[in-house]
Amino acid sequence: xxxxxxxxxxxxxxxxxxxxxxxxxxxxxxxxxxxxxxxxxxxxxxxxxxxxxxxxxxxxxxxxxxxxxxxxxxxxxxxxxxxxxxxxxxxxxxxxxxxxxxxxxxxxxxxxxxxxxxxxxxxxxxxxxxxxxxxxxxxxxxxxxxxxxxxxxxxxxxxxxxxxxxxxxxxxxxxxxxxxxxxxxxxxxxxxxxxxxxxxxxxxxxxxxxxxxxxxxxxxxxxxxxxxxxxxxxxxxxxxxxxxxxxxxxxxxxxxxxxxxxxxxxxxxxxxxxxxxxxxxxxxxxxxxxxxxxxxxxxxxxxxxxxxxxxxxxxxxxxxxxxxxxxxxxxxxxxxxxxxxxxxxxxxxxxxxxxxxxxxxxxxxxxxxxxxxxxxxxxxxxxxxxxxxxxxxxxxxxxxxxxxxxxxxxxxxxxxxxxxxxxxxxxxxx
Length: 430
Description:
The protein is α+β, with helices and mostly antiparallel strands. The chain contains eight helices and 24 strands. The strands form six sheets. Strands 1, 2, 3, 6, 11, 16, 17, 18, 19 and 20 form a ten-stranded mixed β-sheet that branches. It holds the Pfam family HcyBio.
């Protein structure tokens, strides 16, 4: 049968092949219009990582910071803002004690199986393979104490300096050398990567001291008689507060880490996602944390710096930025949260039980003072909002230039994880 003689079964008239093509074109046009109508007017059509990355590659993606998106939502509404914005950048810069670095020195001739290792007189862990080590940020030096520690070694290496390596060994048949004394820099090493087991707390309590004496803590110096309040979160700019249920931040997420591109490698230690949350899902306590890693040779000490807390010890300020893809309206609702909507608890650090003195918003903390029992108490942040903003802007620039693409997590983190406490068990060997 020729195309021109096609006849619909049961019909009295025939339809030509060309008429059929025209009808199909019209049907396709109406389907496209219907799809557009559904997407724009009715049903929320989620974006995908691939679509957003393709827009980044073409230079068409809309990327804004978590502070900038708040005004966009006020102006356009959540639905339209979710269609307009593709990526929201978040960031934090604060003290993160649970940080450190894996290093591989390479083998000397004759070789040594390093058992006891020091870098600039700071002990590094020797319980790995022959020339691997892990140096923790909070480890103090043997000669300067807490005035110089692991964080300083890490930052000296990132700055391009050589550090003094001294290692000893009992010696073995295959590793006969018993001692090595030399100087090494990142350029001499095979691998050098930051691996931080617990960074980027989702939220954190504020600290106060109700006792009559000054106390020295990882939250800084707390003056007696409720003399001050300290806190350490970037509030509405903080990464995990913009993704409170871990919809987009998980294992494999690509991040800004200390000036380099890094990754989320796992849940951070003390991952307490099952803690108390408000009715919108935002945590009131520490909640989630992240384990992160990245190449030290690509880092910049503008975004990672050692710190010494008086009568407490060494820590390290780490800069982290995380892009959040706006996949749907729910993500836009999460990232448009304000400091006034985010809360934490002020806890008494002079009491071992850390009782809650008051629940406050980050807007109150950022105002410079909080009123408790009729007394205005000065507040001060340990984390730097200025530096966090710089990191968010830097990350935004990378994405706009097509130098940074989003990585979908290969595993999502649980929202119901709880913590164990260490129980003291007495009574001989178990």
